[in-house]
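Sharing a chain and its predicted structure for anyone who wants a worked example. Both blocks are below, sequence first, tokens second.
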Amino acid sequence: MHRALRHPSFVIGSALTLLLVAAAALSLVWTPWSPYEMNLAGKLQPPSAAHWLGTDPFGRDVASLLLVGARNSILVGVIAVGIGLGIGGALGLVASARRGWVEELIMRLADFTFAFPAILSAIMMTAVFGAGIVNSIIAIGIFNIPTFARVTRASANAIGSRDFILAAQACGKGPWRITIEHVLPNIASVLIVQATIQFAIAILAEAALSYLGLGTQPPQPSWGRMLSEAQTLLFQSPMLAVYPGVAIALAVLGLNLLGDGLRDLLDPRLTRKR
């Protein structure tokens, strides 16, 4: 903890990430106004005591929309990264443990999946199943699978040549037992760092999909859709685009800094260099 508090990237990243989580948690129990309540007579109001950040073109309170939008961003990020980590991590461990044609097959499937980025996958799924947050989560999760598979396989292969792995093999332990008992605990820090980075990418992808109308659908608030709705009012009310843009930037920056700090703190080689 002492080293962590002296690491600027970890401290700043943790503070911004905690701010994001706090905003999402607060929206579960309280918002200044209902984010679903429209008041066309009070649209495009400037910041005031009643509406801290003003109102949008539909008269909804911008501060309330930002709070609930944080909750949706975290929801998408957690589930999408969970899908990628669970499936991709398992495939990476299988590829490292089995080697041979199994490893080659999994890696080629990962290469094939890389040909379909999250936005393209969401467009295809939208054409078949319709737009919605569920399809966005699935598309982003599928995009994360090959990333975690490659990171897990590379990290596990690097661990496989260590002396303690050779000692475990000499004791008669099979590849699966070695993978679970020795390899997985030693690559957990790498997966944690990668998860924070993919979390930031998932938030950015969700905002992009919502901006295109493929992600979170009305009346559910979304930072990306707030940007989309504000683009026609840039000269009339430019702050409507600034607020969600700053929220997305701070969330992504915080998670990236947190990942960078965790990488330095969890990797003893980097700690020695610093």
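Comments welcome. The chain has one domain: 2-27+59-273.
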